[in-house]
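User: tokens in, sequence out, please.
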């Protein structure tokens, strides 16, 4: 459990404390981001990290104290070392400081439970040493492996500071020996600490503050550790400390390194500092006094002759550099906040628009319902016209929502299936039954026609009979009814599913959705009944074929010409074989005539059967094309599609009573509350966007 403190912090208003790492600009920007979060913006800037690492006794604690005003240097003598994570979060609310312990993953269960249960609220940051003592006591009590003098543990002390300091920052103080793991390997814990260090140093948002003791610039491990995780040196900043403790004459080498002319050349370069000695700190030397003393030290001839970059000397310049660096990181990520805010504003405006006008009165409800009916009617008309780009383009972007396209595809599939499989008997090279269709050979087809003729005993041999033709056509077209009804059902399902999607997109609540689906359902059922009635009329018309005399004559003549042509071709083929064959005999005219006669002269009954089949094929194809067109136009188009825009129309709204209107579409309390919330959010987001655009970083 974490308890929050509300007392005032000692460092919040200190000009030389952590507040000096922030600025008026960063404070304003973070206020804007916090306001965006209040408005539901999940996008956030990445929290910057300053990871401070250095060898033992490198002056790291003193650097941290001078940067933040937090008394790190008072904790240098602790018998157990552990990482400290200082988390600074900007807020315009009451200031809070909270201390917790985060156990490492390999810690024993009992210690993990005890550490996670630890929390302390600080009234002043000067209480931090006492918190450190409490943590050490818990480690000694629950972690047997860390009881040795000088032991290092991977358990982390986390201090969260919330105040109006203009910072969105974590400062991590790693144990001093972490760059030299073999020096502190107690019970194999070096691996834990190495992984802990890696988790911080490998984070691309972290700034590596590598602290180097001036008297040990050639024999330190910290820059090598930094280079491992930042090979290009893009986020590594070197800080050279304890410059007052070097041997006389060593200033040149130190200055050379400070000018980034050493072996390690990080892009962020180096800063030169002079750390105050312990007695000076204990004597109460203020941070401001330390900075003034530092600049006087570097003004001595030994340093002045080194032509130092003065903006890289002293902790105050280091603070300014870090502040600019942190501001730059915030600025780089602000476009993401602006884009997320803009997107959220658009979403809120769209949702507010979808709510329509307020529906707390009869007139308001009627206006809303009339507008909804008009929109759905226009949407349906656009879908039927295939106009997918002018109205509700986003809705029509879904392929299944393009109603005209879906119906056209269904009609095409229906026509193709009818042409291929509509006839009851289909002439092929083999016999069989497939998909409720009888496959027959040509001879079997002739046999079927012959059997029909034989059932009609009163016919004159060799003469075409309309009664026979009617019976044959009825049989061949017997599958049309089932196929056409299946097509009507398929189109009905397409329309019903489309209506459900269209209504669901525009209905604001469950009761309105149910009403609309019910209204459209009734209208579609009526349209389907009318479509079936129309289909029955078409099928009834097709039961009695009407033979056109010209079609009959032309078909008969075509069949006879085809038979004669085949006979002549056979005779010519035989003449050619006789003339140029192996026996080289001549064929007589009588033989030619006999060939032609055998091919052209058949019995009167068989001739009637062949001509009837040909006539049936021609008439069937013509009737089939007409039937397909009539189903698509008179059944699907006239009854299923054309009625859609009028099922739910503005005219129908005028016929509803006041009670019906309120029952169907009056706003619920939740909807009224949501409207008020959205209006407030929209206004706040617009202000936030305008503020983000207006306020820019200083050059």
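Assistant: Sequence out:
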């Amino acid at each position: 459990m974490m308890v929050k403190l509300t007392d005032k912090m000692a460092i919040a208003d200190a000009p030389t404390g952590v507040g000096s790492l922030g600025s008026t600009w960063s404070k304003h920007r973070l206020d804007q981001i916090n306001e965006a979060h209040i408005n539901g913006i999940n996008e956030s800037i990445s929290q910057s990290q300053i990871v401070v690492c250095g060898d033992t006794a490198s002056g790291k604690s003193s650097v941290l104290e001078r940067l933040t005003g937090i008394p790190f240097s008072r904790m240098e003598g602790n018998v157990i070392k552990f990482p400290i994570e200082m988390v600074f979060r900007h807020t315009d609310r009451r200031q809070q400081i909270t201390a917790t312990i985060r156990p490492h993953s390999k810690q024993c269960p009992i210690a993990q439970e005890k550490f996670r249960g630890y929390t302390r609220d600080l009234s002043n940051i000067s209480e931090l040493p006492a918190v450190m003592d409490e943590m050490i006591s818990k480690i000694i009590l629950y972690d047997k492996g860390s009881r040795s003098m000088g032991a290092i543990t991977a358990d982390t002390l986390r201090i969260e500071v919330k105040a109006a300091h203009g910072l969105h920052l974590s400062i991590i103080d790693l144990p001093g020996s972490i760059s030299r793991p073999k020096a502190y390997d107690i019970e194999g814990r070096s691996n834990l600490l190495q992984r802990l260090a890696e988790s911080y140093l490998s984070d691309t948002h972290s700034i590596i503050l590598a602290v180097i003791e001036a008297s040990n610039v050639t024999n330190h491990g910290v820059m090598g550790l930094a280079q491992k995780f930042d090979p290009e040196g893009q986020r590594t900043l070197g800080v050279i400390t304890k410059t007052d403790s070097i041997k006389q004459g060593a200033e040149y080498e130190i200055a050379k390194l400070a000018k980034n002319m050493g072996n390690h050349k990080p892009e962020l370069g180096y800063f030169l500092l002079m750390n105050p000695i312990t007695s000076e700190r204990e004597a109460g030397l203020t941070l401001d006094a330390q900075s003034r003393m530092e600049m006087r030290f570097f003004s001595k001839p030994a340093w002045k002759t080194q032509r130092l970059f003065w903006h890289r000397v002293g902790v105050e310049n280091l603070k300014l550099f870090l502040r600019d660096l942190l501001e730059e990181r915030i600025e780089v990520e602000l476009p993401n906040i602006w884009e997320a805010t803009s997107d959220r504003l658009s979403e809120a405006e769209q949702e507010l628009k979808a709510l329509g006008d307020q529906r707390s009165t009869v007139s308001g409800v009627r206006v809303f319902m009339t507008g909804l009916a008009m929109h759905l009617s226009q949407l349906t008309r656009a879908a039927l016209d295939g106009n997918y780009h002018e109205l509700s383009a986003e809705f029509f972007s879904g392929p299944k929502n393009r109603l005209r396209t879906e119906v056209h595809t269904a009609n095409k599939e229906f026509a193709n299936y009818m042409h291929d499989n509509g006839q009851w008997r289909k002439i092929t090279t083999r016999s069989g039954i497939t998909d409720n269709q009888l496959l027959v050979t040509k001879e079997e087809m002739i046999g079927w026609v012959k059997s029909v003729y034989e059932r009609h005993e009163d016919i004159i041999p060799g003469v075409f009979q309309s009664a026979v033709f009617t019976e044959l056509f009825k049989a061949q077209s017997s599958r049309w009814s089932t196929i056409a009804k299946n097509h009507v059902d398929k189109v009905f399902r397409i329309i019903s599913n489309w209506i459900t999607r269209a209504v669901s997109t525009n209905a604001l609540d469950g009761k309105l959705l149910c009403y609309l689906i019910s209204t459209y359902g009734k209208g579609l059922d009526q349209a389907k009944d009318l479509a079936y009635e129309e289909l029955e009329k078409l099928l009834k018309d097709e039961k009695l074929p009407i033979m056109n005399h010209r079609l009959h004559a032309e078909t008969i003549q075509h069949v006879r010409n085809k038979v004669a042509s085949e006979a002549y071709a056979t005779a010519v083929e035989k003449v050619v074989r006789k003339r140029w064959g192996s026996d080289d005999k001549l064929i007589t005219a009588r033989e030619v005539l006999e060939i032609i006669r055998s091919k052209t002269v058949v019995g009167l009954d068989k001739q009637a059967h062949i001509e009837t089949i040909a006539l049936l094929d021609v008439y069937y194809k013509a009737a089939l094309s007409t039937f397909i067109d009539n189903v698509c136009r008179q059944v699907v188009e006239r009854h299923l599609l054309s009625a859609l825009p009028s099922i739910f129309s503005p005219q129908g709204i005028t016929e509803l009573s006041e009670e019906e209107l309120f029952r169907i579409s009056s706003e619920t309390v939740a909807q009224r509350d949501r409207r008020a919330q959205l209006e407030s959010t929209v206004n706040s987001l617009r202000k936030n966007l305008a503020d983000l655009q207006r306020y820019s970083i200083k050059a």
